[in-house]
Design goal:
The protein is an alpha/beta fold. It contains 10 helices and 5 strands, in the order ααααβββαβααβααα. Strand 2 (about 115-125) and strand 3 form a beta hairpin.
Length: about 260
């Protein structure tokens, strides 16, 4: 009678997102995951069942002034000046499609009680799980071997990939792998991008844990970094993993393998 279409009367517009509440939630998540960009944050919010769109998240990032911040420059920890055997890079064109097919390893620098120290990390390339870690005031084969031994408690890789630095090329390290029939692979000297997975892991640990924490002693550092490694494996989503966590990828592979899928 009034000339108004029935669909117009029944239409209910989309409710507007409360950007203030969304901003609070994003800031809360950024405490745990300070390096998450707008895309990763959006997928984390979806997992948390927050009502928002990508555009909403980007808008909040712009308001907070945190959109597109670049990572700080990394310090160099690789010393390739040694006489140990060097191994070719065999993972450059390799299709990685299962856990424990390739492990990658690297070290990074940090400070403990005002003193320079080093953290060695080992990561499974397929799941992105942190397999092992070790801390020391010396960047040597004893440090990297300790991280390797922790990793070997969880499995054995087919291939171990690292840079050509002395801590990884030393006999103490390579012979342990060779005795386990693990193939040793190394990035070319001066080509850090050939160990890109480990480099990215280092960057994440540095930005999300190390630069945000003051360690009074090596025991405190081991506790805090170990806790972050657990969070990284169990709660941190990755774009490259389809916005899943490393543990979820590991468990999904195990389920599919059991069912023959």
């Amino acid at each position: 009678m009034l000339g108004v279409p029935r669909s117009t009367v029944l239409y209910k517009g989309r409710s507007r997102v409360d950007l203030q509440r969304l901003s609070s939630l994003i800031e809360h998540n950024r405490v745990t995951f300070p390096t998450f960009g707008a895309t990763l944050m959006y997928h984390l919010l979806v997992r948390q069942r927050a009502a928002c769109t990508r555009a909403n998240v980007r808008q909040v990032y712009l308001q907070l002034g945190i959109l597109g911040r670049r990572a700080p420059a990394r310090s160099r920890t690789t010393d390739s000046r040694h006489e140990h055997e060097r191994y070719p890079n065999i993972v450059k064109e390799l299709l990685v499609n299962r856990p424990n097919q390739v492990w990658v390893a690297d070290t990074l620098e940090l400070f403990i009680g005002g003193r320079k120290a080093f953290l060695a990390l080992v990561e499974d390339m397929y799941t992105r799980r942190v397999m092992g870690l070790a801390l020391s005031f010396s960047n040597n084969a004893l440090l990297t071997r300790e991280a390797l031994e922790m990793s070997l408690l969880k499995g054995t890789p087919e291939i171990h990939h690292s840079d050509q630095g002395k801590p990884y090329a030393a006999d103490l390290y390579t012979l342990r792998l060779i005795r386990l029939r693990v193939t040793v692979s190394m990035a070319a000297a001066g080509k850090a991008w050939e160990n890109g997975y480990a480099e990215r892991l280092n960057r994440t640990f540095r930005r999300e844990e190390i630069v945000r924490t003051e360690y009074n002693n090596i025991r405190d550092a081991r506790t805090a970094i170990g806790a972050y490694a657990k969070l990284y494996n169990e709660l941190r989503i990755h774009m490259s993993l389809g916005y899943q966590t490393p543990e979820e990828v590991k468990e999904a592979y195990a389920r599919d393998n059991e069912t023959g899928e």
